Amino acid sequence: MIASALDLLEARAQFDAPERAVSMRIAEHAGRIYLDLADEHWRAVAISADGWRVLGCPPVRFRRSPGMLPLPVPERGGSIEILQLFLNLSNKNDLVLVVAWLLAALRPGGPYPLLAISGEQGSAKTVLSKLLRALVDPNVAPVRALPRDERELMIAANNGHLLAFDNLSGLPAWLSDALCRIASGGSFAVRRLYTDEEEVLFQAARPTVLNGIEDVIGRGDLADRAIFLMLAPIGEEQRRSETELWREFKRAQPAILGALLDAVAHGLRAMDSVQLGQLPRMADFALWATACETALWPAGTFSYAYAANRKTVIVSVIDADPIAACVREIMSQRNSWKGSAADLLRISVERTRRTGDRIGRPKNPRALARHLRRAQTFLRAIGIDVTFSREGRAGTRVIRIRRSVENNVSTVSSVSRVRDCGFELPSEEHCLVRSSAGPDHSHPHEFAPDPGGGRHDRRRC
Asked: pLDDT tens digit string along 130-165?
């Protein structure tokens, strides 16, 4: 009797009850964002353009996977500057980018830029990864090793809102491609066990953190979706115990979370009025971060930091790519070059003999052409255009390389000169945005962009 009753109830739930979308940690409904606190009372934070509040019975449905931990009840009146006390960041620009990444992680659906953290031993890479996850999606296992295949990656994405992979020494090509899909929303299908025709589908877009001693991202398509942080070493006199760090962080976490939620509410209010002169690769992320930034610091601060980071990424990726570096060297002495992939391969081999660096160099012309196509975007960013064509009756494959007059990095473009809080941001073409929302002066700011990574005078509003 009991089994029959349970079967009846299950059938009614599946076929007679209304269908509801089920989310993991973050959901959106009727223009509001809901953050699941994952506590025993099933409370969630509702965030709208008018602010945020904690609800006991949210109108959305959340599911909880094994290992999920509760978030603290957020507190009002906190400052995002408190977060800097717990992070080993090299400069203010890095803080801006970390906060922008956290704000993106609090938005459902993505796209999410990948956060790549590098630094020598003892630079607190793992601690930084754990702290960032604790602010958005705390878990019993905050960081993990790389998955063995794409199926394991999608299962991990299906059971957590945020992914953090620790202590990496490199990324295989398949994982680099899979992480590109995870950043903007990827799908994966496998055959359901014990069946011949049915499939199990996984679909997810997830914010992701990678950390390692070296720059583990070597492929341009993934680097174009990433924010890179290089952590400075921690001196012995500055080092403190992890127990003490986490004790202080737990006390400050509700206020930090409240400050992030204030910025999210401000972003929802200002999103429709934000315009960028030129959209970068992660356009939705840039628009969202620009909408949120004036709740925390002057307008244009994010775009300046993001553009500076992208310049660093472009140089790093080209330096690490033997073919891109070879093309840059060729074009440093001329305005144009024309030849076949075999010609370019011979030049690359000669360069390898001089430098001794054989890692990553293609072995044949076909592989070189594929490799060069991947490097096109970053070469174009430094003013080098690469085109592929066929010429003559035989349809001979030809590569043309030209150096453009302008040498610009494609990022957020210039619109106007920004003056906020009594000081001017640098008049770089990429650091300026147009936003009719204007800055939020409801609290004093103590922040100035730091283009050189050094110290700048702070000026209060």
From this structure: 999 999 999 999 999 999 988 889 889 989 999 999
**What is the arrangement of strands in the sheet containing 336-339, beginning at the earlier edge strand?**
336-339, 396-403, 384-391
**CA pseudo-torsion sign 134, 257, 215, 447:** negative
- Contact by Cβ (8 Å): 107, 288: yes
Per DSSP bridges, beta strands 274-275 and 434-435 are antiparallel
pLDDT tens sequence across 402-457: 988 654 443 333 333 233 333 234 333 333 333 334 444 343 333 444 434 443 44
Residue 327, both tokens: 């093309």
CB 180 within 8 A of CB 222: yes
Q: Which two tokens stand for residue 285?
A: 């992320």
The structure tokens listed for 455 are: 């110290």
DSSP string computed for 308-345: HHHHHHHHHHHHH-HHHHHHHHHHTS-SEEEE-HHHHH
Is the per-residue pLDDT at 35 higher than 80?
yes
What one-character-per-residue DSSP string does 100-122 give?
HHHHHHTSTT----EEEEE-STT
Return the bridge partners of 35, or none: 26, 45
Q: Cα 413 to chain center, whole Å?
A: 20
Contact 399, 341 (CB under 8 A): yes
C-alpha neighbours within 13 Å on the C-beta side of residue 110: 21
Nearest to 228 by CA among 121, 129, 118, 315: 118
